Amino acid sequence: MLRFILKRLGLALLVALTVSFISFSLLFLAGDPAIAIAGESANAKDIQAIRELYGFDRPMLVQYADWLWNALRFDFGQSYYFKLPVADLIAERLSVTMTLGVCGILFALLTAVPLGVIAAIRPNSLIDRIALFLSVAGQAMPSFWFGLILIVVFAIQLGWLPASGASSWQHFIMPTVVLGYYAMPAIMRLTRAGMLEVLSADYIRTARAKGAPEGRVLFKHALRNAIIPVVSLAAVQMGFMLGGSIVVESIFALHGAGYLAWESIGRNDLPTVQALILVFALFYIVFTFLADVLNAWLDPRMRSA
Amino acid sequence: MTEDPILSVRDLTLDIPTAGGMLHAVRGIDFDLHRGETLCIVGESGSGKSLTSLALMGLLAPKIQRSAARIDFDGTDLLKASRRQLRHLRGARMSMIFQEPMTSLNPAYTIGDQLAETLLLHRKVSRAQARARAVELLEKVGITAAESRLSQFPHQLSGGLRQRVMIAMALMCEPELIIADEPTTALDVTIQAQILRLLVDLQREMNMAMILITHDLGVVARVADKVAVMYAGELVETGPAEAIFRQPAHPYTRGLINCIPVPGRTERGARLGTIPGIVPSLVGEVTGCPFRRRCDQAVEACAHAIPLHRLDGDTHQLRCVHPDGHRHEEVTA
Questions:
Q1: Residue A147 in domain
Q2: Which of A48, A130, B85, B119 is most buried, most CB within 10 Å of its CB?
Q3: CB-CB: which of A209, A299, A301 is closest to B96?
Q4: Is A260 part of any domain?
Q5: Is A135 inside a domain boundary?
Q6: How many CB pairs under 8 A join A and B?
């Protein structure tokens, strides 16, 4: 198990390094960064001065090494727009995004897994139908529309919840539901399919033949095997929620990292975009790594992989 | 044999609803089994042997309909027993060994956990005691380095070892009845004999009643006290093993026994015996003898109700229109 973890950790570091290089090179793909900083009215002399000031005249690999070394110390440079350290900007915004992401994935898991399990135990029952309806609706409904409906009903009509902002926990209820409901259908259907398959397995019959009570058969013997693909999916969803919650963050005016990314792209604020891409990618890598470790704990056959 | 049987089954019937109508998979099974006895249920694939064993354990899929006049396990009426009562019997007093050793163990838990679980479910023992018992049984089923096996996972063991683990698991609580459903079918031929020998030795040592389901008559001849021959969901002939092999009465039983090649007597390269034809469909109403279309003794009466004949007193029973299984001239004339 320890060997497996070390191996995966090494792999994760390699992926992280690759991603850091790609996100660094984005700076150069987007055109001459010196022109972007100087603005359209600048003359050639100004641009040359900026090029030297920011070190754009050095070889690219040297610049990358420099940037990476700084990034390792959480120094991502200055934001062109805010004239503040990028690291501080992201740290401030990330707390909102993290809160939302964690609440969203918990909401998705806590609704999807029990529903999926019940639907698998009683296929074609009323609960199975309801679960199917909820998942189809969740997949078909765009997040922005669902978010607006919630605002209309719970903020405007009923006045129970605040419509925008992030100053109290009540502000996070509707965004959590919208974001979580987006991830819920896939998790639920994977749980249901996994449980259905596992429940017809021979070892489930063995567990019953031993005289194990039904609850133990379902949760100890079946769910542990059925949940394995769900763990991998949830890790990807979690990464997505942190990076891709831009829509939800804009609707509810939560100024999170997703919203910052969207703003910074518009403003050509490359150091911020670069750093955000790296941070989001690192989240994916960390969650995938955690999912791999959790899966290896759940399924011993994966430990040799 | 004045002692009460440990398992008594009367008129066990299993029906499976299918898209094409009701499938009458098992019809009117009767048998008694005493302590220490081995009953072999023989018959070809699809004759309902496995379903019968699952029905006795109460492990049938919910859609299969079970009915019987009686299923009595040592004074407990299994037809009326609550789920809780059945659960306390399963694994503790009646155990089952399945056909598929490769998939019958949970891949997520160690051998030790799965063995100990059986004991922990039914007895008030500590984990350490349960593990000690697991080691004891692994040694009993011939697994070397038993202690270190406890922390292994099923995927680290071969099929033969896994089946030994399954046998050990079934014996954890010293059951009075063990049902083995073709326990050696999925194994290599060389391993088959070992596993079977082991099972029979343990059954004798622990004085358990055993139902051994098989389609291997060679096995039956070696281990059975009683034989029940099953064809298309019916027991066509039941009786003491010795009588069945000495004087097989039902045409199907005779056909089966003729299929066994005998070393020295069957010529090299000679055609092996076969029974022509295929098993009838059991969907819809099933009348008469299910074997009649393949039977060389068939007469017109075979399409109607089939009487039960008793040979040699009470123990040897035959379900056939012919009182001794043979067509006589006056019947056809």
A1: yes
A2: B119
A3: A209
A4: yes
A5: yes
A6: 65
